Every structure is written in C-alpha cells, then in structure tokens.
Amino acid sequence: MVLAGITPVTYVVVLAAGLVTSLSPCTLSVLPLTIGYIGGYSKDPEEKGKLGLQVLPIRLPSLDVDVRQLSVPPVVQSYLAGLTFALAASPCRNCNDVGVFAKLTNAYCIVALGGAENFYSVFESEISEHVPVIKTSIAGTRLVGRMTVGNRNGLLLPNSTTDQELLHIRNCLPDEVVVQRIDERLSALGNCIACNDYVALIHPDIDRETEEIIADVLGVEVFRQTVAGNVLTGSYCSITNQGGLVHPKTSIEDLDELSSLLQIPLVAGTVNRGSDVIGAGLVVNDWAAFCGLDTTSTELSVIESVFKLRDAHPRNIVTDMRASLIDSMA
Questions:
Q1: Average pLDDT in the 93-121 region?
Q2: In what order do the strands lie in the sheet with 221-224?
Q3: In the chain, % of residues over pLDDT 90
Q4: Residue range 249-292, pLDDT digits in tens
Q5: What sign results for the dihedral spanned by CA atoms 132, 133, 136, 142?
Q6: Residue 32 pLDDT class (50, 70, 90 cuts)
Q7: Alpha carbon of 285 to those of 133, 240, 244, 306, 321: distances in Å?
C-alpha cells in the first residue's frame, strides 16, 4: 500500500531531505570514505584519485607531507586527501567550547595536544609568563578540560590516563602540584566536579573514596550539590576564588545557598550567545578568562564583573596568597 502511493513528489521530498541531512557536520566523518571511493575507483586508470587530489587540500594537518608524493595507491591518496578536508572543515577547529579542550588554574594551564596551533598560541601569549602552559592528551583524547579537574594544589586525572601522559604532566607541572589518577566510574571529572582553591562542588553520585581523594589532593572542602537541578556541577558552573558563574535557571534560593558554601559572589548567566553549559564554554582563574568567540559583549561584561578581572593581575593575586598564608601561620 505504501509503495503504491509513491509519486514523483515523493522522490523530490526524499531527495531534498537527503540534501538537508548531508549538510550536517556529522557527515564529515564519512567524507574520506566517499572521496576515496569516488576518486580511487574510476574506470579509467589514469583518472584514479584525480577528483580527491584536485578538489581537496593536499597537505596533511600538522605534518609537512604532500599526499601526491607518497608511494601509495591512488585510492589511499584520495582517502588521505578526503581525511585532510574533513579535519580542516571540522567545527572543532573553530569550536567555542574552550572549556572542553583546556583547563586553567592559578598554577598551570593544560591545553589539548593536536588542536589548532592558534588555540594553543592564545594561552601561550597571554599567561605563559605566569603559569606553565602544557600540551597533552588525556586517555588519548583532546578532551582535557572535561576529563580532568584541578586547582593550584593538585590535579586529578581519570584512570584511563596512560602512564606516558601521567609522566609528561608530572614533569611539566610545578613540584608543589600533586597529580593523581583516580578510579572513578564517572570518569569525565571536569563535568562532575567544579572547584576553586578552597571548595569543590561534586556530582551527588561520586564514590565516597573519590570524595576523600578530592579533599586530600586538591585541599578543599567537598560538598555534594546540583546546579539548577543538574548533577553535572562542572558543566553548569565555573568558579574561582573571586566569584562564579552558574546556570541561568539557578533560583535565587540556590544562588544564596551555593554562595554561602563557596563564600564567593555568584551570578546566573550564559556564555557563547546563550549557552548554559558554562564549564564547556569558559576557562577562568583569578586573573584571566578565555571563552568562545560567540560570547556576546554583555556576557563578557558579566564575566569580567563577577570574576573581578578588570583590576586583577597575577602579581597581586600572588601577593594576596602570601599575605593570607602568613596570617594563617601567625
């Protein structure tokens, strides 16, 4: 019955739907296969690989290699050319989710290995004089901001972090920063934990043993909390020792409760032109903040205000830390 009802209009609608679907960035992952098949399996042997090698960028990302000079079959050359295009066109190269690919604290900054060079250079130029900027991967991925959590006292890594990555991070971080892997089933630690140098808000279902490790390694008080009803505290808020930005739907009562726990002023807001995933769109410490290009001037003004960045300077922060340390020891 269904097949009998097909008309020419049906074919037009299906074709249009297919074209719209093909515009999705998700199709980039299969583009190399498509280009490899079309460019590598031409009936004319002399034409094999021609499509992929003429239409697409030739140089492989981050490598000084021209695929036309490789001693590989044309189908492989076409595949590599298609892969290069997919990587170059990937939205992650100009992604607004800064907090996914970077982790910033008062003692160090971690940036994803293998990302765009200009992404790393921004951190390098702005803060490298004050804190080390480290390129690394976590568990073989670039999601360093979502897989890790830390402050000036320590850094926690998921159990999937390789020995090589752990050694590299330990060698690059200051000696006083404690680095530890933890065996936690909620392995995206950056999504489940939000912290500054004194307090941590954690996912309500995190293991008790993990809670103790967080308190010990990061040197913080730990509270099991939600943000606007969301258990992923690290995703929906960002806090420093100066202030915090939380999910825009956080109630006044919850704002007061969280502010009382953290002992810092909090503001409900957004980043990246209305995004409520604060932790993914923003990295901030006591004197600097980095957010996506889509962040509006109003959002930037709120960020500067709540985190007190207008007059902040790393030397002033260090002086205040030393003064507080002397007072506590006196």
A1: 86
A2: 193-195, 199-202, 221-224
A3: 59
A4: 999 999 999 999 999 999 999 999 999 999 999 999 999 999 98
A5: positive
A6: low
A7: 14, 6, 10, 12, 14
- What's residue 9's pLDDT? 78
- CB 24: neighbour CB atoms within 10 A? 8
Enumerate the β-bridge partners of residue 159: none
Quickly count: other Cβ atoms within 10 Å of residue 271's Cβ: 29
Token pair recorded at residue 232? 């992923």
Find residue 180's DSSP bridge partners. 156
Asked whether 39 and 81 are in contact (CB, 8 A), the reply is: yes
Look up residue 29 and give its amino acid: S
State both tokens at 48. Answer: 């094999």
pTM attached to this predicted model: 0.69
Alpha carbon 258 to its chain's center = 24
Q: What DSSP letter does each residue of 168-200 carry, written as one string?
A: HHHHHS-TTSEEEEE--SS--HHHHEEE-SSEE
Please state, in angstroms and rounded to a whole number, the distance separating the CA atoms of residues 11 and 316. 68
Containing 15, the helix (H) or strand (E) segment is helix 8-22
